[in-house]
Description:
By secondary structure, the protein is mainly beta. It is built from 4 helices and 39 strands. The longest helix has 16 residues. It is globular, with a radius of gyration of 26 Å. The N and C termini lie far apart (62 Å).
Amino acid sequence: MNNRAFLTPVLIAFAMLFCVHSYAQKKNSDYKIHLFKTNETFTIDGIGDEATWQKAEPAKDFFMVLPMDDRKATQPSEVKMAYDDRQLYLLATFYKTPGNTYVVESLRRDFSFGGNDNFLLFMDPFNNQTTGFSFGANAYGAQWDGTMSNGGSIDLNWDSKWVSEVQNHEDKWVVEMAIPFKSIRYEKDVKEWGVNFSRLDLSTNEKSSWTPIPRQFPTASLAYTGTMVWDNPPPKQGLNYSIIPYVLGTTGNSSIEDISYDNEFKVGGDVKLGLTSSLNLDLTINPDFSQVEADRQVANLTRFELFFPERRQFFLENADLFANFGYSAIRPFFSRRIGLGVPIIAGARVSGNLNRNLRLGIMDMQTEKVDETGLPSQNFAVLSLQQKVFSRSNIGLMFVNKESLDYNALADSLKTEYTQFNRNLGLEYNLASADNKYNGKVFMLKSFGPDTSYNGFAQGAHLAYSSRKWNWRVQQEYISENFTSEVGFVPRNNYIKLEGSVGHLFLPASEKVVSHGPQYTGFYYFDPSMNSTDYVSILGYAVNFMDRSSLGVDVFNEYVQLLAPFDPTNTGKEELAAGTRHHWNGVYLQYNSRPKSLFTYNLTTRLGRYFSSGYRTNINAQLGYRFQPYVSLGATLSYNNLDLPDPWYTTDFWLVGTEADITFTNKLFWNTLFQYNEQSNNFGINSRLQWRYAPASDLFLVFNNNEQLSPLEGNLWSLTLKFTYWFNR
């Protein structure tokens, strides 16, 4: 069957569907909060005794979102805002029933939303219902900040300079904030921004919002924001720059073969320059990411590479411009491909809004050559454009280029190991309906290289719908055999995939159950001739309880035809032959405990058949206990038992992770993570002490230890002291 003949009607059908519900007036445009300029000097203390707050207009009478969205919130909330030439101010008061205790996991920054009594601010400075900023605090003063994209997704890895304080009382808690205008991006001479306020109160299991939001959507949904009306446009930022230098010293040692470790002293840093009030230039020189959190290990029993998220600060502002093109398994750009095990010399990025409707992202990174392996110095360049169309949709363009410098000077043996260049060019359309019920995407990618073996094509499309009671999604993907994305994340090639799901929720009038209902999901893979190679069919039922605990049961049917040899234990044992067919059934069970308990737990298990007529038993548990708000203890346990015929026999292995998170204050944190992975015979420790001695300025002390167990024995450890400071104007 001709692939293009198959794809053309699919694309036409999706394009026709994408024209549905494309344009309408903003849903909650009538909800307004008016801001006026003040000349008063503020003390950010959570008391709110300034005269400005007596005159400021309140946003109150919040709506309940969960457990039901058809009534006003039972716990009163009130938010006031004002500004001066430098900062935006906010005072929020949250009343509660006396005697109800606060629920707080810790004082750590960027807390888990569902595990804390908290308040969140969502701002849409361009009023495009797509991008923005979020700031917040939990009931004991831990801060939250992140960038917003895709109409409501929040990236908490972003970090900015602002201050807040919280005061607790028997009948209420109060948060006061000051956010410098230079810490955010906005369009000049505009007097209306999108805004919303969200509150979670776990003592009553109630989530509420200033504007009404359907219960199937998060309170971060920018399609449902109200309007922040300024008496005059926010001040022009003028010269806006930040210099963030660092100094570090590291000592360590390695006894692992072929890995050496030298003591080092490094100096480097970042520069942020506001080209306009909405467009930013970022520069980095000799960057270091030693303070970044360690990846959480997982047991891998798949045939493909696992995805681990980006955590390095330089790559995070406006990260959606670069990272969200395509699908999770068809990404033309994945920033973790840059600088892993290879020093980065320098990098530059321009990102932000050229105007209300057009966003730009340009990034260029340069890495050093590695004499030990012969890896040449490489340059990574990315261009991303995103033009808003209709009410909330957009058209995106992306170009990714990886270039090996001085390639012709390499030895012939190295030319076969390293690529001279690899390029991806893509175009996509993202649908987001005005009421947020429909979303979808159509994209196409073309890869290029020094010869035709690198020249391939990838394409995908989906349409999804979500209402209070119904949800469905249809999706299609195609990747050719020669599609190559060396800077992307594409773990699988040469397939056509069809995916679909449908679910229904019942909303009973019950004091214990909020909702329950069935869900069907199916994933079907074919080779380019439309012969079936894989499928998974899952039929499940989920129950959500009033105390925010949940229970789920899934029954699945799975088929795999191996396209390459595969060891079903992923432990280096004998491989099953390519072309062999395997079919099995099984069941998943999952239970999540109520988050307001001091002791919390999430349990999942997978029971059923496995490759080669064997059996697989998997049990996972996440356990937590908190001595709020200062100490949070956690443990992750994963056990796999594979009962297979000769030559694998019985294989079982554990993955154990324990974590102690101690937050002495909301500026002094100590986190220690222990991980043992029996599948890879690895034991690791990551311990980080962080002191935020000034806004966005830190002192880190980081200890890492990685031990390879028998038969590949060896140890690598390091101790790093890193000092950063944020100078800005």
